[in-house]
Design goal:
mainly beta; lipopolysaccharide transport protein A fold; six-stranded antiparallel barrel; rod-shaped; disordered N terminus
Length: 471
């Protein structure tokens, strides 16, 4: 009764693993037909009658033809076990293995030892696979490797749905092609439309765009759209390798059209670069215009300056900040590094221009309001000037305030040096250097070793003899 018990347990386990895996009509008339065998023997055992086919076996069912070295047909169990150098071919797939156990009624087959499945333009490699010829669904309970014209995928286990050209992979999933490398705990994909859902400890290295992404979930499709959730993090390196941008947020959307990328980060958005850092509720970047837009009570820090406002625009040019612009009563604070006092600027619009990465001048208009502290010739504090005007230009030298020019409706006061003068503040004052994001300590790196270049086992003879297969 050993063979009979194995058969019952085998089918039961498969139903338990995936109840829908083997749904489909079972054709009891799908009998095995013998086309060739060097020798035929019969025997009766505790499992019933056995027909033994030995040497150069060729069989046929309604679903496939099979070549193998030998086969045992359990007539009373409706089961066929094939051994040695197996080659099975159907209209839609081809499978090689060292051993195959085929249940004739359910059309379920257990393949063992150097299993290779070819479907369309893909190859799947594993030591064990269950396959339903009725539903064209394969279950790989152990390590598998998938190859196609796009690249290579490996995982601890997986399902492949041949009729739907889709798949589920689980456990240490890795994918690579010429332009990107991906890691995840599990992956669902519809390969025909290049749709992917990546779950758990997701890492994506986009070499073409010099970008790395991590999160607990990434969705990607053929339109170039990506959605990153679960604590998204991104690292981008410019083309000259001279600057790195780190961005982390609750979730992130990326859209690639042709060679142009845009992305929008949402909720608790942090940005860090070598030159500036920012906090905001939303951050949008357009690669074509090289422009960041920060929304939702943003804060931006650049050297000794902090800028706040309802909206902040960061214009990048040649990988450096060209200008900053903020509307609707923004507030800028610039700390004087010599005396430590806080120059304050506000107005309807603030425009800050940079030359070679260093602040050059600042325009405030209209309804500008400025408080700036004066220094004596020996760099000591010497009072302050508070003024309002329709237009105010602040000129900087080496990052320090050098001159202030005001035009139209100018009004101002000289404030003499007093003990409490450093504490003077304009309406709307915000200074929060402790909130400035620092460079992330944790690097964005892969956690798994590289995908092996070699296939997991030596290739069966009959597989090697078949021409026109992917290399």
């Amino acid at each position: 009764m050993q063979r009979h018990s194995f058969r019952i347990i085998f089918v039961f386990v498969l139903f338990l693993v995936s109840p829908f895996l083997f749904s489909g009509p079972a054709d009891a008339q799908n009998r095995v037909r013998i086309l060739q065998s060097d020798r035929l023997e019969g025997a009766t055992t505790e499992d019933g009658r056995i027909r033994k086919l030995l040497g150069n076996v060729r069989l046929e069912t309604d679903d496939f033809t099979i070549l193998c070295d030998s086969a045992w047909q359990y007539l009373d169990l409706d089961e066929l076990v094939a051994f040695g150098n197996i080659d099975i071919e159907t209209d839609r797939e081809r499978i090689w293995s060292d051993k195959a156990t085929y249940d004739i009624q359910s059309e379920i087959t257990l393949f063992e030892g150097r299993v290779i499945m070819q479907a369309e333009n893909i190859l799947l490699f594993s030591d064990v696979a269950y396959y339903s010829f009725a539903t064209e669904i394969a279950l790989f309970p152990e390590y598998l490797r998938l190859e196609d014209d796009r690249g290579v995928l490996v995982a601890d286990s997986g399902y492949y749905y041949n009729a739907l050209d889709s798949a589920i992979f689980r456990g240490n999933v890795q994918m690579t092609d010429s332009l990107q490398y991906i890691e995840a705990d599990s992956v669902f994909t519809r390969r025909s439309d290049e749709y992917y859902e990546l779950h758990g400890r997701v890492f994506l290295d986009d070499e073409e765009n010099r970008t790395r992404l991590t999160g607990s979930y990434i969705q990607s499709d053929s339109t170039g759209y990506r959605r990153v959730e679960g604590g998204s993090r991104m690292r981008r390196i410019n083309e000259s390798d001279s600057d790195t941008t780190f961005l982390w947020s609750d979730w992130l959307e990326v859209q690639q059209k042709d060679t142009i990328n845009t992305f929008t980060a949402y909720d608790n958005v942090h940005i860090w670069t070598e030159s500036y850092s920012s906090l905001s509720d939303t951050a949008h970047y357009d690669e074509q215009t090289e422009q960041f837009t920060l929304l939702g009570d943003p804060r931006l820090w650049y050297d000794e300056m902090q800028l706040t406002g309802p909206q902040i625009v960061i214009q990048i040019e040649n990988d450096t900040v060209r200008y900053l612009e903020s509307h609707k009563r923004p507030f800028a604070v610039q700390r004087d590094t010599t005396v430590g006092r806080l120059n304050q600027i506000t107005g309807d619009t603030i425009y800050i221009h940079f030359d070679d990465g260093t602040i050059s001048y600042m325009d405030v208009y209209p309804a500008g309001n400025v408080l700036y502290f004066i220094k004596s010739s020996d760099e000591q504090s010497d009072g302050a000037i508070e003024m309002t005007a329709d237009f105010i230009k602040l000129v900087f030298m080496d990052g320090e305030l050098e001159d202030v020019i005001a035009r139209r409706n100018v009004d101002g006061n000289w404030l003499t040096e007093k003990p409490n003068l450093p504490d003077r503040r304009l309406n709307g004052f915000i200074w929060e250097p402790d909130r400035r994001p620092g460079k992330p300590v944790e690097s964005i790196e892969p956690r798994l070793p590289p995908i092996p270049e070699d296939r997991p086992f030596s290739l069966p003879e009959r597989y090697q003899s078949v021409a026109e297969l992917p290399p």
